[in-house]
Amino acid sequence: MSYSIEPDLDPCVDVNEIMAMFGDWTLRLDVQLIYSTIYAVIFVIGIIGNGLLIGTMVIRKRMTVANVFLINLAVSDLLLCITALPITPVLAFVKRWLFGGMLCKLVPLCQGISVLISSYCLCLIAVDRYRSIVTPLKIPWTVRQAQFMVAACWMGSITVSSPLFITQRLQQIVLGNTTLCGEFCGEYDWPPDPRIKLFYGSGLLVVQYLIPVSIMAFCYWKILQKVRQDWIVDTGSLLTEAQQAQTLIRKRRVYWLLILMVAVFMGSWMPLSVVNILRDMGVGFLDVQMYFKLLNVHALAMTTICTNPLLYFWMSKRHRKALKDDMFWLTNVRKQHQMGLLERFAPNPSVGILYKRSLERHLLQPPKYSYRRPTLADPTCMNRERSVQEMQANCFLLVPLMPLYVPGRSSSNAFLRP
Predict the structure, then answer these.
(1) Which of 286, 319, 352 is at the close of a domain?
(2) Which Pfam family is one of those matched by this entry (predicted)?
(3) ∠ Cα 72 207 70 (to 5°)
């Protein structure tokens, strides 16, 4: 019996075999481990940071203009975290599309929408702060107006990103007589005229990067000038030296924080924006170590998923305190439902200590006209000691509740405060 092996009618070559001949760095195991770790860390921090931001806002149930912008910023970062971070390193290492035709269209669309929403939410936050600090006499935005602006941003982002959905598709690539294995996802449905794609890429650079940077830089520069004018401490000021030093520390903190907000956005997105426009222009130097260069600029841009909630939410003491209160509520919700009427009001600790000490002195001091020294066998002394023990065990019952109370965590209004 003889067996014949028919030759493969459509032989293909793995693209990594071709890239290995050019010394592609993304094929090295150490590079893959390092960048996989970087992307995993960004993914975990982004999910936790933005998830806690949204959870804190939902639990507090208090919607303000700033909260509307922050929630949408967190939602866009989560969308970018889910669509970009798991897929990009796989593409850089495998170099072909493994996720199907539908995701080939949806993933670039979602990435474009999330990037635009993130950029313009940062702009709206900057403009809102500008109106509140530099022009405080203007009528502030309402929550409904903020929601309308956010909805307009979503509609505009979908419209601007729609060409990515239209032009993306899967395709096999043939280089001369060589067919590359697998399918590749790319913008293959643009019109033949290359100027159309270049025009779209240039417009996207202006809309996604240049306009937001200009708006943020202008607003925060005006805020810096206003803060510097308001916090100038004269030599004849009534503030003490400690208060003047504290004011100087606060001023420096605001300076660096505002500068950092603009610098982080510019430094994170500028390399990727420049690389994308240079690819549309067909600049040749990107062909050398192309996948490695794209992986670096993309990882740098994705760090904003971590820095946005840190700079705009977790740097605020008020928000950190709210999260701490919410976490305490979540871990003690069952206990709080069982609390009685007296436990709904927690006594002030300092008042309780003073009241306890004064009551203890009153119970232990001998009678004013006593002519004998009390002993342990004396019933009056035993009664006094028993009273002290009962007082120490139930001291909160002896403190007047209504005039000297601090609302406890179980009060329903406590969760509504920011």
Answers:
(1) 319
(2) 7tm_1
(3) 15
Q: Judge if 25 and 67 occupy the same domain.
A: yes
Structure tokens at 291: 């996948």
Cα first-last separation, the chain: 84
Do the Cβ atoms of 348 and 405 come closer than 8 Å?
yes
DSSP state of 240: -
Are 388 and 360 spatial neighbours (Cβ–Cβ below 8 Å)?
A: yes
Establish if 214 belongs to a structural domain.
yes
What is the domain count for the chain? 2
Q: Is the pLDDT of residue 301 over 70?
A: yes
Same domain? For 282 and 372 the reply is: no
Q: Which domain holds residue 391?
A: 339-416
Same-domain status, 98 and 219: yes
Query: What pLDDT, in 10s, does the model give residues 37-91?
Result: 999 999 999 999 898 888 888 877 778 898 899 999 999 999 999 999 999 999 9
pTM: 0.72
Place of tokens 């170590």: 289
With bands split at pLDDT 50, 70 and 90, how would you rate the model's confidence at 278?
Answer: confident
For 89-93, 107-111, 171-175, 407-411, which range has the lowest pLDDT when averaged over its residues?
407-411
Q: Which of 157, 168, 147 is closest to 76 using CA atoms?
A: 157
- Tell me the two tokens of residue 173: 């690539």
Q: What is the DSSP string of 353-389?
A: HHHHHHHHHHHHSPPTT--S---TT-HHHHHHHHHHH
Q: What is the DSSP string of 25-75?
A: GGGSHHHHHHHHHHHHHHHHHHHHHHHHHHHHHHHHT---HHHHHHHHHHH
Q: Are residues 157 and 84 in the same domain?
A: yes
309 and 354 in a common domain = no
